[in-house]
């Protein structure tokens, strides 16, 4: 079966579409990536998404973007499908709010998450059966609704002989610890903290929006890490919490970045410090949980930051650092591939959350179906 996975992450770069051929036998999944297509967000759409992801906003704006993103997702899928016609779409949507840990609200304890991008628009425009809303059922089962990709990491990267850690560096960084010969219940996974999110925001501030990211880590390489600020950042209580745990823009978004800028430290030095912060927090999370792992498999936009990758190698000398492309998985496509697989699991009637990663009370099927007719 050919399945399209659609992903737009917390970096707000755009829409990623992966076409994947998937077969399931009694003993294993056969997952073959076919096509990867990335469609950048129009500048106005990106700015609108950034605005509603960083502050309280009018419901009309959210509603309009919800339907507009459905149109944009459908267009991206159709562009990716010129040679291969998918029969199923797994669409993550754009996260604009995520609060996986329950908080007191109106005399109730409430956890919540919100991904926009209307699946009805996608199904109608493409004529393809669409699965969406993957995070909600896990939250209903007492989980944090994240991370969900570890289920697919285990399918792609577990090995009978060696332990591995799969690391995805998107806006947020997350790890999946896969022991040697692991069963799904053996997997440990969680968000380690910020990935590219803080770095990207500082680069946009420094360049007045002319650059969206630190190409190859050149700015960070030219700056100086501010030791006291770095120590203060690493004292955030999130880093000492035990998994399962997840985080996002609500903790490391614009308010966090504004606090860094308010220190008065030069922006180049802030970018150097933020890059070290990302590397140290990832290394801290891996050091707390990786056990006897021997390989670190990196994916996500962070693989293109050569300076960040070098710092990870320096901080984790006992692990062989490689990228997912070494295993046939495009680093930029992995999360889109993951939601294609999760959609495939939904129509197969198989639970695809990992309670050890999300904290859910039990395994549940993830997703909600929108037929094409």
What's the tally of helices? Answer: 14
Strand segment tally: 12
Note the quaternary state here: single chain
Give the N-to-C terminal Cα separation. Answer: 20 Å
Examine the secondary-structure arrangement and name the CATH architecture of the largest domain: 2-Layer Sandwich
Give the proportion of residues in helices.
Answer: 25-40%
Total number of distinct structural domains: 2
Rg computed from alpha carbons, rounded to a whole number of angstroms:
20 Å
Structural commentary:
The protein is an alpha/beta fold and 373 residues long. The protein folds into two domains: 2-145 and 333-370, Nucleotidyltransferase, domain 5 (2-Layer Sandwich), CATH 3.30.420.40; 150-327, Nucleotidyltransferase, domain 5, CATH 3.30.420.40. It has 14 helices and twelve strands. Strands 1, 2, 3, 4, 5, 6 and 12 form a seven-stranded mixed beta sheet that branches. A five-stranded mixed beta sheet has the order 9-8-7-10-11, sandwiched between helices. A hairpin with a 2-residue loop joins strand 4 (88-105) and strand 5. The model has no long low-confidence stretch (mean pLDDT 94).
